[in-house]
């Protein structure tokens, strides 16, 4: 079979990313992040779309150059269709469709969440074969999602449970914001937590049945506790930030792992992966290694570069869809929320 060259584009939130793959091997993965949002403590959708507009051409150009691939060699163009911010998605979707049309190659629409899960199949060389066998469980934790997914095949995934309110990353970011620590909070909390005592403070844990998650109660508990402590000591955060970060991280990791243990027990599946921005978290990674030792799980933890939004994961998903000839047409719209 001829080699397949896929250009993939990701623009669902605040990272403009393009990747080139030769079959399932990654040749390049270029991402332009948007510092403009830091001053606002969160992503400003209109500013994100404008930055994507500025970044998309140079990012795609760089990805092709680094891969050493001419656009005329491309077999197909894959792009994130959703979920995400509509204005951001539209930049990548329109660009990808226009380029695919002009080159006369198929277009492949990719669900961003499916991309996060399939990031585990990205190979950096031909001999790179440590990929999960089906079926496996995947904990998908990001700024917008917290889900436990049973992955039966590339194109057969079942959501066993998900958050009924906030996502884990969103809770971390909001707690970091109320502590005045900056945005995004995830990496800041992670760094501080390494120096703190995870048992120093207790925060509310949800009592939800089944595999679903909830993080809004924790967020409120954190906020109210902090408000009370600040009444006693105006510099409470400054004096206790490492312990606050460590306790918050531990609470979130405990909540995530408890439901995952339940899912592993009840499905009998012992291959367990983690994906999404929060999978960069040290405490969560340690908990995965600990569960591997204690429960005999085979765990799959992505490289840091594939945890946050990136086009490589869109490219690998595009490659699998290319093999199934699962293409989309020019009228495939972007979607902000999950379609089903
Ligand atoms: O998957 P992702 O890049 O995209 C969105 O869903 O937007 O995830 C971003 C989330 C943010 O909430 C960020 O704070 C969190 O991932 N994050 C982390 C860490 N690095 C990023 N959370 C905890 N620890 C980290 N090291």
Shape: globular
Number of separate helices: 9
The first-to-last residue Cα distance is 34 Å
| Topology pattern, helix = H, strand = E | EEEHEHEHEEEHHHHEHEH
Q: What is the overall pLDDT average?
A: 95
Helix content: 40-55%
State the secondary-structure class: alpha/beta
Beta-strand segment tally: 10
Name its key features:
340 residues, alpha/beta, five-stranded mixed β-sheet, 9 helices, 42% helix, binds 5'-O-[(R)-(carboxyoxy)(hydroxy)phosphoryl]adenosine
In short:
By secondary structure, this protein is of the alpha/beta class. The chain contains nine helices and ten strands.
Structure commentary:
With 340 residues, this protein is an alpha/beta fold. The chain has helices at 45-67, 86-103, 112-118, 168-178, 185-193, 216-232, 236-267, 282-295, 311-323; strands at 5-10, 15-22, 25-33, 76-82, 107-111, 136-141, 146-153, 156-162, 271-275, 298-300. A five-stranded mixed β-sheet has the order 3-2-1-4-5, with helices on both faces. The chain is globular. The structure holds 5'-O-[(R)-(carboxyoxy)(hydroxy)phosphoryl]adenosine. Residues 13, 142-144, 169, 172-173, 184-187, 190, 276-278, 280-281, 308-309 line the site of 5'-O-[(R)-(carboxyoxy)(hydroxy)phosphoryl]adenosine.
Layout of SSEs?
Elements (H helix, E strand, L loop, with lengths): L4 E6 L4 E8 L2 E9 L11 H23 L8 E7 L3 H18 L3 E5 H7 L17 E6 L4 E8 L2 E7 L5 H11 L6 H9 L22 H17 L3 H32 L3 E5 L6 H14 L2 E3 L10 H13 L17
Parallel strand pairs: 1-4, 4-5, 6-9, 9-10
Antiparallel strand pairs: 1-2, 2-3, 6-7, 7-8
Bound molecules: 5'-O-[(R)-(carboxyoxy)(hydroxy)phosphoryl]adenosine.
The site of 5'-O-[(R)-(carboxyoxy)(hydroxy)phosphoryl]adenosine (KG4) has 19 residues, from α4 and α5.
